[in-house]
Amino acid sequence: MTTAHAVVQDRLQLGGHSLASRLIVGTGKYSTYELMSECLEASGTDCITVAVRRERLIDADGNNILDFIDTRRYTLLPNTAGCFTADDAVRVARLGREILLGLENPGADWVKLEVLADTRTLLPDPVATLEATERLVQEGFQVLCYTSDDPIVARRLKEAGATSVMPAGSPIGSGQGILNENSIRICLEYLKENDPDYPVIVDAGVGTASDVALAMELGVDGVLLNTGIAHARDPLTMARAMKTGTQAGRLAYLAGRIPKKLYATASSPEEGLIAPKPR
Amino acid sequence: MKIFFNDESREVADGASIAELLSTLKLEPRHVAVEVNYQLVPRQRHSQHLLMEGDRLEVVTLVGGG
Q1: φ, ψ for residue B17 (rounded to 5)?
Q2: Which of A33, A59, B48, B59 is 20–30 Å from B22 (CA)?
Q3: What is the pTM assigned to this prediction?
Q4: In what order do the strands lie in the sheet with A142-147?
């Protein structure tokens, strides 16, 4: 199959879900639901993350995010953000599934698992994440695991049955991009060894289009981001940038970049020069 | 009788069901999930499940998140 042919049917397969876009976009931190809705559309995504929180009864405007999301168009990916124990993460995952079942959204069978260890770094607790993964897989969830870029933890999560392992490029919301390309490369090697279709997603830390493109060029299957769009000066334009950045990075990965070399190689013929070359 | 709704004490009619409580609070049943005493109660059981004095309800919905 030529690369061009591959590109036409280049969907992101995540367990039982087949997505048209390799960009998964979060719905948090937008100044208004209307802007969020426009940005989701501009990003080209067909999968969006949502969080589960207590019903407050007195919403300032009486608005619910579900009034601004077309649940037939987007596959929702509920997260367990804000959980610091495996018990809480399992509870929140069940609650999210219950809401999505009511909405008849296909996302009812999966969860973005996030079990945090520390409020300052928002780094994941690897032990609790592993425990929660095992329990949720047991309960029939397809588990997409937010984790650090530690290749050993990544491998353990896959072994525990995670549908996808999602290493962070850098801390959540930090916009630092991919701090350690080599860790992501090793994660990819370990997770895709003898299993090249196993999906790996960079989740968190990407700040701009080049960060997304770099992640995709490294060979990850997709990128999940939120703040990079929501807090850009012009979120709508950044949503378009993230969309094209994802596509550019993916195409470059499929095309295969040239190796980096120390010295130059001329692009124009060396023969037929009108004057002799210097030494 | 008194129950706890997301940690806040609240008076409801004796023997009210979850469905009745959601309706009183004008909550769209499709938009919420309910736990009673830390156990999820699926929405198909909301009308049969009668609340008891001192029950602790957790009622959640979806919000924006990453």
Answers
A1: -90, 170
A2: A33
A3: 0.93
A4: A110-113, A142-147, A164-167
Pairing label, strands A12-14, A17-19 = antiparallel
For B61, which of A64, A226, A227 is closest by C-beta distance? A64
Q: What is the tens place of the pLDDT at every residue in A118-154?
A: 999 999 999 999 999 999 999 999 999 999 999 999 9
CB contact under 8 A, B33 and A52: yes
A84 alpha-carbon distance from chain centroid: 21
DSSP H or E run through A152: helix A151-159
Going along chain B from its start, the domains and CATH numbers come out as: 2-61 (3.10.20.30)
Give ipTM to 2 decimals.
0.95
Cα B52 from Cα B39, distance rounded (Å): 14
CA distances (Å), origin A259, targets A74, A182, A183, A205 = 38, 16, 19, 27
How crowded is residue A140: how many other Cβ atoms within 10 Å of its Cβ?
A: 8
